[in-house]
Amino acid sequence: MPEPKPIDLSAQPERALLVAVLLPQSKNDPMDPLGELRSLAKTAGVDVVDEIVAKRRRPHPGLYVGSGKAQQIGERAEANEAAVVIFDNDLTPAQIRDLEEIVERKVIDRSELILDIFAAHARTSESRLQVELAQLEYTYPRLRHMWSHLERIAGGASTAASAVGGVGTRGPGEKQIEIDRRLVQKRVSQLKREIAVIDRRKIRQVRSRAHIPGVCLVGYTNAGKSTLMNRLTGAGVFVADQLFATLDTRTRQWRLLDGETVLLSDTVGFVRDLPHHLVASFRATLEEAIHADLLLHVADASADRVADQIEAVHSVLAELGCDGGSQLLVLNKIDCIMDPTVRTVLAARYPEALFVSAAEGNGVEKLEAEVARRAGGESVRVTLVADCKSGKLMHFISQHGQIERQEFHDATAEIEAVFPARRLAELKAFAPDVTIVDGPYAV
């Protein structure tokens, strides 16, 4: 008698059919319109089994696609045993309902997929609160089409519904949708209060560090921001070749080549058509970017649509209100560029940009020098006589200055060093015998 086959109890990935409806103003890659949605689906743990691309001059008001295309989507989903249909467009609640009736499968849009990925990757209580708020604000206008029990009376509709309100909390004949809406509104209000507390705490933290220049990494998701942060600070933050690997802002000290210390922050990556609710919810997390002295806009130089990704980041920064500050474009992953003409074209289009490879370290010293110039301001060369017994003075010199020469005479040291000009007042408070020998402040 043959042995029975073992039962596979592991969770199987959900099979999905992807759909992109290309409109005249669509920003999809014409060579691979579903490339980004495919990556998002992969990050969400979905098994993509089929793809459909349709072109329209304008969305169909009822189905977004035409009725014939909707029927085709249903047939293809049936043939490929797809459990879900994912649109690379934002759909209205009515469009989702009507599409589900035709394709007889779950239908989700781009925003819901991104929210699902954020929910899966949220690790801290702060990011979980922010994701939950964004999900509820997305869900609220869709409640009428999300539940099959909406037309039933709450008195006997479901145990969960009956337990929610309790005696005296709802009127006779109140429908389940009214209970659901009230619960969502109550939870949204609570989340906003909790996030407002986090926001105020973040602002206090940022302001308490105002004496140290703040530099923030921003950019399209998977552009290599976390890899660059590890390269610059040795922070050891999580790195993965996937979208939205980082959701929580991390801040580390970064010691520049001139001896100056700045605070470097890594932030959540952006993406094309990032849901507005998500941007608003994550404002507290992005507080570092909003108040940074310098934004390092990291872009994947090897990406086929790098220009569109750069524009998408500019759009999100504008929505946050931090697009007017000092920015430095950092074109990363130059080690992945196989065609040398690509770099030539990018250099011509973005003459102020710096080319680096965070993975291999190419161009990092030039980046540090430029950050030191922009964040630290002008540098000056000074000579001073320091009391070696003054621990605070010697620590200040080693912390903020780049020592070029020092000679010891008993309990004193004659030091020649390069300091940021903005540190001169503090230096003179420690050591009155300071002579500036180079730079605009020379005497």
UniProtKB/TrEMBL annotation:
Single annotated GO MF: ribosome binding
Domain Hflx-type G: residue ranges: 213-379
Location within or outside the cell: Cytoplasm
Keyword Nuclease (UniProt): no
Keyword rRNA processing set for record: no
This protein's UniProt keywords: Cytoplasm, GTP-binding, Magnesium, Metal-binding, Nucleotide-binding
HAMAP family xrefs: GTPase_HflX
NCBIfam families: GTP_HflX
The protein's name: Hflx-type G domain-containing protein
